[in-house]
Amino acid sequence: MESLGYLSLALPKINPNEKEALQRNRVEFLDLNLDVLSSILSFLTTSDLRRLASTSQACYELAIVEMISSVTLRNRQQTQGFCQFMLGGVYHRIPLMKSLTICAGALDSPPHSFYEKVDRRLGGFLADILEQANNLSSINIELIEFALTSNPRMSHAIASRCPHLGELIISHPMTLAVEMLTGMNGLRRLTLSEVGVTSDVATFVQPVQDTLEILHIRNRSNFRFGGTLCQCPSVHTITIDSSSHYLKQHLERAFPNLRRLHMSGVSLSVSEKFRKENLEQSDRREAWSELEIVTGCAARICTMALNCRVRRLEMMDEYSPRGLPLFPTDHIAFVDTIRKTSPLVLSFSLGVSTLSPPLFSRIAEVAASLRFLHVLFIDRESCRSTLNCLNQISDTFMSTPLTYLSFSVRTPPECFININHIETSLRRDWIPVLVESIPSLKYVELEVYEKHSWWEVHEPSGKRKVKKLEMERGRMIRKRELER
């Protein structure tokens, strides 16, 4: 039996008793339907697959399919073993590969090589594999320029996977990447990481602008997007993971049919400079008329000064433990964003303060269409501030069409809270008040750390009351209400 050393999968020695048990049960296991087997194998770890492969030739054939389907090459030795294994004369191996990741050190030259930093021989072997990988759906290459210099055929080998390639992920792209992308007409999903500060993202997008549908940009530093000739009519989803602010007009011009916008990254406050310029450009002819989903950092979304209908607006700051910035100017921009986007679904995280109750009052005034509201309260005072805030806003949404209300509570690790006490207080004292105050309310969701519950409003004998729902039923209702 062959050793899969290229993935650190050299088959281990198995305890004789354990091996006997595995062999005794393998017949029943192999009698399962192939679709069922494939589903089971996808949940196994690499170690489990190694153990399975060592029991019999039949199990080996099954396990090897799962091992080869997704490959990550991290260093030169691994790459060399992988190429030898895949090009070793077994014709059916290469088509089994569906996903390939080439890390930064996978093509390094041998130790003590003073002439070149890249191993061109390994680059040639990888090019041979890529040219035959007809079922490859995802390629992820760190330091793409470095990889492309490894062999003259590498660029064509990657481009030859289009239009069947589902996803291309590349980092630190420059001129060689542009040449490669020029031959990739048909590419639908592209992720660009760490584009240089002197480069324009549009330069890399333009070669595939006619077919591109999903674009992800991940940059720790600033990047530019100002290409006047780039227009991608098929792009419906963009993710920008960066700490910088950008002008809305550039995105509107390049992606006129955008439906989903995700803007993550750290930003401590709204940029008044960029927001002012975005507001001045709000009436341009190329402006978006409607977006389905906008998610990400509240400060960055508010800086964009969106002026179109957004069905689902989620400003949950994943990188910020504080939630929505506390400055009054940020609250003004936040409320203005809600007013101009008129969302049906609104989610946001909020650092609780004395400014919170007035903020909710202003939200209720401008959110005329709101029917789903989720708020994550981040409380630094053992939930006392959250309870005080909720007591002040119980009748705030009385005139809204709100049907689903969800509240979560978080405190810093140093704050000790009695989770059961807080959850009981919310359920006993606050939910009944909500139900009476908001005539349209049908569902309430509460989460205090791991304590999670759903409640449904019903009217026996004409009096509005709540009943607790099973966990699975609550999750189904939440999903339905989000998508309705």
Which properties best describe this structure?
F-box_dom; F-box domain-containing protein; 4 domains; 484 residues; 18 helices; alpha/beta; Leucine-rich repeat, LRR (right-handed beta-alpha superhelix); LRR_dom_sf; globular
Radius of gyration: 27 Å
Structural class call reads alpha/beta
Write down the oligomeric state: single chain
Examine the secondary-structure arrangement and name the CATH architecture of the largest domain. Alpha-Beta Horseshoe
Overall number of structural domains: 4
C-alpha termini separation: 54 Å
The description of the largest β-sheet is: 16 strands, mixed
State the CATH topology of the largest domain: Leucine-rich repeat, LRR (right-handed beta-alpha superhelix)
Q: Any idea what the shape is?
A: globular
Overall mean pLDDT score?
82
Would you report the number of β strands? Answer: 16
Task: Report helical residue fraction.
Answer: 25-40%
What is the CATH domain class of the largest domain? Alpha Beta
Spans of at least 5 consecutive residues with low confidence: 1-13
Main sheet strand line-up: 1-2-3-4-5-6-7-8-9-10-11-12-13-14-15-16
Number of helices: 18
Measured by DSSP, the beta-strand proportion falls in 15-25%
